[in-house]
Design brief:
The chain is of the alpha/beta class. Helices cover 39% and strands 13% of the residues. The protein has 13 helices and 12 strands.
Length: 378
């Protein structure tokens, strides 16, 4: 793997990345330490961050045999639309931090892979420019303190041509991310939140003993988000509505009753409540509770195609991947994100066939076993 003096990938660099771990290593090699920590870090002692990955490693699948898998396909549906695989990049803030093209490059890669791309409220590129790339685009929404501002953003996204709204419900304020606190992490001037005015903010001014990004989100995000706001948003938009950050089956049932079209079982990648349950462990109860009345997605710790297989077997309709596309973007721009999605597609096809599943839907009938301690854990 070769990189130029400016940190750009050499010719064919992305093709040399065979796993998502390879992608992460390539990204870490070119990113400034503070940016690397901003992407990689979790909250508190990072117990949940580590548990997300360990939880997947504890799940083992009982493959079926003597099944015709000569025409194995990864095709599925997400929010009622056909997709070549039940995988999509999760919304991630400030992607311009890791590559000059930021969300535009990531959206182009998602379009090429045929999967939805979710634009964050904290995107460095306006939703209209991402829509212009083409492909399927969803919009992730944070509820804002300024009255009516969140609903204005939802309307803006719908008018721009987004196909779904994803309301993040687990961030009344940003979790205490100690890597960023120790680094006194601050956004560079060139990186702006395009949907929050696009100007300089508290995130651009160093705060002693604090993360400037956390200071800014504390000023911008509302900690008063409740089910009444979900109902307000549901009445405000005709788009499919997704709630991201659900771990309790009771909340999932309430979401269905509120007219939500999908929930994302998620602990925000280990970046909010430290010691929150891993999504893959919460998934079976949530899927059982909703009983097919809405779609169930899961994120947190997905690093290979067999993880997708496990999620499907445990009741998910699909998965979101957060950090890996960002690592790909940092390592090789659009090509790096495409490589992440290509690797996941190839690994999922391999996993499905070897598990005796001709389709992604067949994986929902696989049985799984949890083996107490993952290999390599103390």
């Amino acid at each position: 793997m070769s990189f130029g003096e400016d940190g750009a990938p050499g010719e064919g660099a992305a093709d040399a990345l065979l796993t998502l771990e390879d992608v992460e290593r390539a990204a870490v090699a070119v990113l400034p330490a503070g940016v690397r920590d901003f992407v990689a870090g979790g909250s508190g002692r990072e117990r949940t961050l580590a548990a997300n990955r360990a939880a997947f490693d504890r799940v083992f699948v009982r493959p079926r045999v003597l099944r015709d898998v000569s025409r194995c396909t990864t095709g599925s549906e997400l929010l009622g639309r056909p997709v070549p695989m039940p995988v999509a990049p999760a919304p991630v803030a400030y992607q311009g931090l890791v590559h000059p093209d930021g969300e535009l490059a990531a959206a182009r890669a998602a379009k090429a892979a045929g999967v939805p791309f979710t634009v964050s409220t904290l995107s460095t590129v306006p939703v209209e420019e991402v829509i212009a790339v083409g492909g399927s685009v969803w919009f992730q929404l944070y509820w804002l303190r300024e009255p009516g501002r969140a609903l204005e953003l939802a309307r803006r996204a719908e008018d721009a041509g987004c196909e779904a709204l994803m309301l993040t419900v687990d961030v009344p304020w940003m979790g205490r991310r100690l890597r960023d606190v120790r680094n006194e992490f601050t956004l560079p001037e060139r990186v702006r939140a395009a949907h929050l005015g696009g100007g300089a903010s508290a995130a651009h001014h160093r705060a002693a003993g604090a993360s400037a990004v956390a200071v800014h989100t504390g000023q911008a995000f509302s900690p008063a988000l409740t089910w009444s706001h979900v109902a307000e948003l549901r009445a405000h938009t005709r788009l499919p509505l997704v709630l991201k950050g659900v771990l309790a089956p009771e909340d999932a049932v309430r979401a269905v009753e509120s007219g939500v079209d999908a929930v994302v079982v998620s602990n925000h990648g280990g970046r909010q409540l430290d010691s929150a349950l891993p999504g893959i462990d919460a998934l079976p109860e949530v899927a059982e509770a909703v009983g097919g009345r809405c779609e169930v997605l899961v994120d947190g710790g997905v690093r290979c195609g067999t993880d997708v297989l496990k999620a499907l077997a445990l009741g998910a309709d699909g998965v979101l991947v957060g950090r890996p596309p960002v690592w790909g973007l940092a390592a090789a721009g659009e090509d790096g994100v495409r490589r992440v999605l290509d690797v996941l597609a190839a690994e999922l096809a391999d996993a499905l066939g070897l598990a005796g599943c001709a389709t992604a839907a067949d994986a929902r009938r696989l049985r799984t076993v949890r083996i107490g301690v993952a290999a390599g854990e103390p």
